[in-house]
Amino acid sequence: MTSLTKKNAKYSWNPNCEEAFQSLKRSLTTAPVLAQPDVTKPFDVYCDASGNGLGCVLMQDGRLVAYASRQLRKHEANYPTHDLELAAVVHALKIWRHYLLDNTCHIYTDHKSLKYIFTQPKLNMRQRRWLELIKDNDLEIHYHPGKANVVADALSRRAHCNVIEARPTVRVLCCEIDEIKLPTEQLAELYNIIIEPTIKEQIIATQKQDKGMAFIREGMDEKKRACFTLDDQGVLWFKNRLVVPKDMELRKRILDEAHTSMFTMHPGSNKMYQDLKQKFWWTQIAKYVSECDICQRIKADHLKPAGMLQPLALPAWKWEDIHMDFIVGLPRTQKGYDSIWVIIDRFTKSAHFIPVKN
After folding, report:
1. Where are the alpha helices (DSSP H) in the chain?
2. Are 245 and 213 in contact (CB under 8 A)?
3. What angle do CA 67, 97, 43 make, to 5 degrees?
4. What angle do CA 188, 189, 191 make, to 5 degrees?
5. Does residue 231 sit in helix, strand or coil?
6. CA–CA gap between residue 110 and residue 89 (Å, rounded)
7. Model pTM?
8. What is the pLDDT of residue 252?
9. Closest by alpha carbon to 83, among 130, 147, 145, 152?
10. What is the signed CA dihedral for 202, 208, 212, 213, rounded to 10 degrees?
């Protein structure tokens, strides 16, 4: 239909235009909302796994009830394909246990061998453990081709895209807009974005202007500073750590982000030093943290243990140290006892129970 909007275009409403119009109308008038589950009807679960994550969709009568996905854990990246597909099924059964435990459900997967998981003679320990969990449900596993299992497949795959990868796409899109001669409007607000350099870029730029960095480079030429190295771009490193010049504003920015941002919440001198030394190198980090008033007042290292949290000393002899307590509120016996006096020897752990009257 877009071709009909061009200037001097001949109006011709063909079957393709009619089909596109009806499809657009259905999309605008149909709300893609989640359906309310009916526990009296069976459920359909579509599962899929990829090298990035697991995806699953819960449906009933052709309507979407819920969907879920998660990234693979570090150890799961080494799973074979069969175990990954089975892990997607187990993931769905766990998160929707309140729906599927007492109801019939049909599992659809694009891994055909999972249909015969209940009759396979040889299973590894992981598969046996998952099979015990699966058997708690009333389910059937069906093969669903990967081309048809598009929703679960999309949930299991994470789109990796950065600004550099997106630039060609934006350029191509702009060319297509120019070709079809769509009206465009320039918005001044789009040009008000200020992109600040990252900390690493700022450090590299400051290194080139710092006199101390030049002194270190001269020592490297004379082989007096073997711990320092230069990469292909002329950036100075100290044992694989980026050297931070003596710029107080730059160091303060690094320390503030590593120490007082909302994501770190004053981690303390030890934690802060361990985090920073993996990427940066310069002195006086401990001095900066030691002057933080909040860390000194709220860190656990500077607080006294509350109450009787200190462990008690072990006794050397029997009945040297005992614990006592009373159990009250019991039904009264014929002799009038309604409580129990409990005495425990801390050395032998022997317990004595004596009936008493309240």
Report:
1. 15-29, 81-95, 97-100, 125-134, 150-156, 163-179, 199-207, 211-221, 248-259, 269-276, 285-290, 293-298
2. yes
3. 60
4. 75
5. coil
6. 11
7. 0.39
8. 78
9. 130
10. 90
Phi, psi (rounded to 5 degrees) for 206: -75, -30
Strands 53-60 and 63-71: antiparallel
Helix axes 81-95, 125-134, angle to 10 degrees: 30
304 vs 235: CA distance, rounded Å = 46
Q: Would you state the pLDDT for residue 32?
A: 62
pLDDT value at residue 186: 55
Alpha-carbon gap, residue 137 to 125, rounded angstroms: 20
Q: What's the chain's length in residues? A: 358
Question: For residue 247, how many other CB atoms are within 10 A of its CB?
Answer: 18
- Residue 321 host element (H or E): none
CA pair distance 206, 270, nearest whole angstrom:
27
For residues 239, 242, 248 and 249, what is the CA-based torsion angle, rounded to 10 degrees? -160
Residue listed under structure tokens 């509120």: 329
CA atoms within 13 A on the CB side of 317: 2
Q: Count of CB atoms within 10 A of residue 59's CB? A: 19
CB 131 within 8 A of CB 118: yes
The mean pLDDT of 158-182, rounded to a whole number, is 52
Three-point CA angle 74, 276, 198, nearest 5°: 90
What is the C-alpha to C-alpha distance for residues 149 and 114, in angstroms, rounded to an integer? 15
CB 13 within 8 A of CB 19: no
Give the closest residue to 46 by CA, choosing from 159, 131, 145, 129. Answer: 145
Q: Where do runs of H (alpha helix) occur along 66-162?
A: 81-95, 97-100, 125-134, 150-156
Answer yes or no: are the C-beta atoms of 332 and 338 closer than 8 Å: yes
- The backbone torsions φ and ψ at residue 295, rounded to the nearest 5 degrees and listed phi first, read -65, -40
As a whole number of angstroms, the distance between CA 236 and CA 249 comes to 19
Contact 289, 315 (CB under 8 A): no
Q: Please state, in angstroms and as integers, the Cα–Cα distance from residue 259 to each residue in 245, 280, 297, 308, 351, following that order.
A: 19, 14, 15, 32, 52
Give the pLDDT confidence of 172-200 residue by residue, as tens digits. Answer: 656 666 666 656 555 444 444 444 567 77
How many whole angstroms separate alpha carbon 67 and alpha carbon 224?
61
Residue with the two structure tokens 């995806």: 55
